[in-house]
Design goal:
about 80 residues, alpha+beta, Structural Genomics Hypothetical 15.5 Kd Protein In mrcA-pckA Intergenic Region, Chain A, two-stranded antiparallel sheet
Length: about 80
Amino acid sequence: MQKETIEITTATITMDKLLKFSGVADTGGQAFMMVEDGVVRLNGQLVTEKRKQVHPGDVVNINDQIELTVIAEAE
């Protein structure tokens, strides 16, 4: 499994933007399709909301192949 740490500069980020920002999805539309296809999990729970809020400390899993750990930007 490919594991990455994604640093965000805001308090939260929407799932579609996170998938695009991390490079997992090339476009917002592709990110939406990944959620619709049921391959995205947030902290182990299936994501059905395309604009689900993701916070630092959350772990996003895509198709059991990619794991993104979200952290806050270091000050």
